[in-house]
Amino acid sequence: MRMASATANTAKIIEYALFSGYDPVVKMQMGPQTGDARNFTNYEELYEAWKKQMRWLRDIMARTVNLGRAKDPEFFGRPFLSATYERCVESGIDAVSPEGERGNSWITWFTWVENVDSLAAVKKLVFDEKKYTMAELIDALANNWEGKEEMRLDFVKN
Question: What InterPro entries does this protein's entry cite (predicted)?
């Protein structure tokens, strides 16, 4: 049996790297502080901040899955599901009970491509071509690209 686990919107990783772990949507510090991206002088600094945010999110998700596997049987037995498994019917053990066989659990990471696209666009437009500064990018993002449509399209197309 497979265990339901955790799902992560990994597009938040690039946002956290650019905003030093701060989430402007919920208006609170979520990830580790990785420095003001306006002060990053090269792509490697941005990439290191991204990796730190990714590790933080991965660790949170792994702890969530592990806690869920430990506590799920205590609070959320699956009698109907258990009735569909021969082993559960024969043994009388619930499908999610730690005494029985347990399947794998997993973390579903979606929106990975947005990370790659975003990192590549920032590398090209800010650090390689120097068309924009990190300060301009951070300000544009903080203001939801307001008045920066040409800039937004540059980042979308690259």
Answer: GRE, PFL_dom
